[in-house]
Design goal:
Pfam families: BPD_transp_1. This protein is an all-alpha fold. Helix content is about 70%, strand content about 0%. The protein is flat and about 75 Å long.
Length: about 290
């Protein structure tokens, strides 16, 4: 065994352990979702189902039309919200990255200040509901996350690394600001945009709080809020069954297995989307490289 082989084996072993630490919890969640609830209560969790049972998925998918509609709402909000957010935040970040912008410092302070402090829940609710009249519309699930200060500062830092000589040369060639932004800056900022896009789509997909506050129409309920309501129902039914006298209710409510089934339904689409973003990272780094 050579001197170079041993360090490589150690590195490979560490990465194998890290990979297992990431994969085993996912396998365990799938296993629990396919396990019998009574077996889980008696014997606890296991890496593989001891008693195969799909009652958890039958309970979660009891009304498939509502689940499909919730998936549709979440997909529309995530895609449309991510696209609008990227455009808005990229425009603000590009403005803040230009050292020749007169109001760069005041605008940077404003963005940073809104990251530290906000108007509060009650003023925000009054603004969105009474003044903007966005309650029970799909826009109330999109607009509050359109401009996230942290993501704006992240994009600004990335765009500041783009050489200003490129922008000056484009100006000397007669290119407008819009052409410079859309044809020069955005292609060079693809790695940063891909990173922010991934964070933004995860934020839209996982959000349930906005729908809890502003959505009353069943047709506009997103997936996460519907799963939240199912969990509340399961907790209520479980507590109610525990209060009944013995022998009056022998039905076992799929509590733990249903939780894991909901986790699979909620995380499944994002697990399928992530590899495309990973490839986009690599392609963005290649396209956005500046050769000296």
């Amino acid at each position: 065994m050579s001197k170079k082989t041993l360090p490589q084996m150690i590195i490979h072993f560490v990465f194998i352990l890290f990979s297992l630490a990431c994969i085993i919890p996912l396998v365990s969640i799938i296993s629990i979702s396919l396990s019998n609830e009574t077996d889980i209560i008696k014997n606890g969790y296991s890496l593989f189902p001891r008693v195969f049972d799909i009652n958890a998925y039958a309970y979660v998918l009891y009304e498939p039309i509502q689940i499909i509609n919730a998936f549709k709402v979440s997909i529309i909000v995530s895609i449309l919200g991510t696209f609008i957010s990227l455009i808005v935040m990229a425009c603000i970040a590009y403005t803040l990255s230009r050292h020749d912008y007169r109001f760069k410092n005041p605008l940077s302070f404003y963005v940073f200040f809104t990251m530290m402090f906000n108007g509060g829940l009650v003023p925000t609710y009054i603004l969105l509901s009474n003044y903007l009249h966005l309650k029970n519309t799909i826009w109330v699930l999109i607009l509050p996350y359109v401009a996230v200060p942290w993501f704006i500062l992240l994009l600004r830092t990335f765009m500041q690394k783009i050489p200003y000589d490129i922008i000056e040369s484009c100006m000397m060639d007669g290119a407008s600001e819009f052409r410079i932004f859309f044809q020069i800056i955005l292609p060079l900022a693809k790695p940063g945009l891909a990173t922010v896009a991934l964070f933004t789509i995860l934020q839209y997909w996982n959000d349930w709080f906005l729908s809890l506050l502003y959505i009353e129409k069943e047709s506009l309920v997103p997936l996460q809020y519907m799963l939240y309501r199912m969990m509340s129902n399961i907790a209520f039914l479980t507590s109610s069954s525990n209060q009944l006298p013995p022998g009056l209710n022998n039905a076992v409510i799929p509590s733990e297995s249903a939780r894991m089934a909901m986790a699979i339904l909620a995380a499944g689409p994002m697990l399928a989307v992530f590899p495309f973003f990973q490839q986009y990272f690599v392609r963005g780094l290649t396209v956005g490289a500046v050769k000296g």
